[in-house]
From TrEMBL:
PROSITE patterns: PROKAR_LIPOPROTEIN (PS51257). It holds the Pfam family DctP. GO terms for cellular component: outer membrane-bounded periplasmic space. InterPro entries: DctP_fam (IPR018389), TRAP_DctP (IPR004682), TRAP_DctP_sf (IPR038404). Gene3D superfamilies: Bacterial extracellular solute-binding protein, family 7. This is TRAP transporter substrate-binding protein. The keyword Transcription regulation does not apply. NCBIfam families: dctP, TRAP_S1. The keyword Ion transport does not apply. The lineage of its organism: Bacteria, Bacillati, Bacillota, Bacilli, Bacillales.
Length: 357
C-alpha cells in the first residue's frame, strides 16, 4: 500500500514539473527569427528614441498661476502637442512655482529631471547663454511691435540658438511674450528715478537685473518668486518689478498698491526643453513639438496684448495706484552703462535689434 502511494505521488510530481516547464515557455509573441536575439542585444547602449507608438507623459514647469497669459500659453502648447499626436504625447503643466524657483527648474531641465520650463531670457544669461543678456538690456525695445520684429528676425534666432550652443543640456524652442516690466511698491509711490533711492526691490536671481536695480540707486534683493507676496507684506522688501499680468494675477496690488509704468525691460520668456527629452523624441515628434511651441508663442502674444488692455482698468477698480511716466530719459541715462557691461561683446546683435523693422 505504501509502495503504491509513493509511486502515485511520484507520478503526480512528474506531471506538475512538465506543466510548469510548459507554462514558463508560453508567450503571446512568436518565436524570434534566427539572429533576432543577437541583433537586439547589439542595440544596447545606443541612444534611446521614443517611437511613434510609444505613450509619453512630459512635465512642464511655470512660475506663474494658471490665469496668467503665459501659463495659458503653456496649456495651449500642451493641447497642440496632444492633438497632433492623437494623445500619444501628453504634457502636464505645473504652474505657480510648484516645481521650485526659476533657477531650480532650469537646473532640473539641464539635468533631465524636468522636460520643459519657461524662464525669463535674462535667467539664461547666468547659465552661460550670454547673448540672451541683450534681450534684457533696459529700454532696448521701442514697443511690442519692434520687439517682435527683432525676435522673429535673424538676431532673435541667433540668440535663441545660444541656449543650446552655450549652456548644454537644454534647447530653446521659442519666445513667449511676457510683456514689459514695471516697478510696484508699498508705501511711497515711485514717480521719478530719484524715488527709487534706498528702496529694497525684489529681483530675479540673475546678475543683469541686480545691476539694473542698483543703477536706479535701489537695493536689489534676490528672492524666490513664490515668496514675494509675503515678503512685501512683512516688509522684507519695499516692492518689486514685473509685468502687468504678473502684478494682477499674483494679487501683488493687495500688498503693493503703487504701480509705476516704467517699461524698463521687455525681456521675453523662453520655452526650453531638456536635451535628454529632445534626444528621446523621433524626428517627427521633434517637428511636432517645435511647431506647437511656435504656434503657442503666437497665442501668448495675442493673449498678453489683450490681457494688458483690460488689466490696467481692472487694477484701478481694485484700488491700485497706476502711475503714468511720460518721460523716461532720466531712467535710461542711469542704466546706459549696462550696454557695455552686458552688450559689449554683442554690438552687432544690439544694432540688429535696434534697427529691426
Amino acid at each position: 500500500m505504501k509502495k503504491r502511494l509513493l509511486l502515485l505521488l511520484l507520478a503526480v510530481g512528474l506531471v506538475l514539473v512538465v506543466a510548469a516547464c510548459g507554462s514558463a515557455n508560453e508567450t503571446n509573441e512568436p518565436a524570434p527569427e534566427a539572429g533576432e536575439e543577437n541583433e537586439a542585444q547589439s542595440g544596447e547602449g545606443e541612444e534611446e528614441t521614443a517611437g511613434n507608438g510609444e505613450q509619453m507623459i512630459l512635465r512642464y514647469g511655470e512660475l506663474n498661476p494658471d490665469d496668467h497669459p503665459i501659463t495659458e500659453g503653456a496649456y495651449e502648447f500642451a493641447r497642440l502637442v496632444e492633438e497632433a499626436t492623437d494623445g500619444r504625447i501628453k504634457i502636464e503643466i505645473f504652474s505657480a512655482s510648484a516645481l521650485g524657483s526659476e533657477r531650480e527648474q532650469l537646473q532640473s531641465v539641464q539635468a533631465g529631471g524636468l522636460d520643459f520650463f519657461r524662464p525669463n531670457s535674462s535667467a539664461l544669461t547666468d547659465f552661460g547663454a550670454d547673448p540672451m543678456g541683450v534681450l534684457a538690456l533696459p529700454f532696448i525695445f521701442e514697443n511690442r511691435e519692434h520687439q517682435w520684429n527683432a525676435l522673429n528676425g535673424p538676431a532673435g534666432e541667433e540668440i535663441l540658438q545660444s541656449v543650446e550652443e552655450f549652456i548644454g543640456g537644454m534647447k530653446g524652442l521659442t519666445y513667449y511674450d511676457d510683456g514689459a516690466r514695471h516697478i510696484f511698491t508699498s508705501g511711497n509711490p515711485v514717480e521719478t528715478v530719484e524715488d527709487m533711492s534706498g528702496l529694497k526691490i525684489r529681483v530675479p536671481e540673475n546678475a543683469i537685473f541686480m545691476d539694473m536695480i542698483s543703477a536706479f540707486n535701489a537695493d536689489p534683493t534676490p528672492l524666490n518668486y513664490a515668496e514675494l507676496y509675503s515678503a512685501i507684506q512683512t516688509g522684507v522688501v519695499d516692492g518689486a518689478e514685473n509685468t502687468i499680468a504678473g502684478y494682477l494675477t499674483n494679487s501683488f496690488y493687495e500688498v503693493a498698491e503703487n504701480f509705476s509704468l516704467t517699461s524698463h525691460v521687455a525681456s521675453p520668456g523662453v520655452v526650453v526643453i531638456s536635451e535628454m527629452t529632445w534626444n528621446k523624441l523621433s524626428a517627427e515628434d521633434q517637428e511636432i513639438i517645435q511647431e506647437a511651441a511656435v504656434q503657442s508663442s503666437e497665442f501668448v502674444r495675442s493673449e498678453t496684448e489683450k490681457f494688458e488692455e483690460e488689466a490696467l482698468a481692472e487694477l484701478e477698480e481694485l484700488g491700485a495706484n497706476i502711475i503714468q511716466l511720460d518721460d523716461l530719459s532720466s531712467w535710461q541715462a542711469e542704466v546706459s552703462d549696462l550696454y557695455e557691461t552686458y552688450g559689449g561683446d554683442f554690438a552687432d546683435l544690439i544694432e540688429a535689434i535696434q534697427t529691426a523693422e
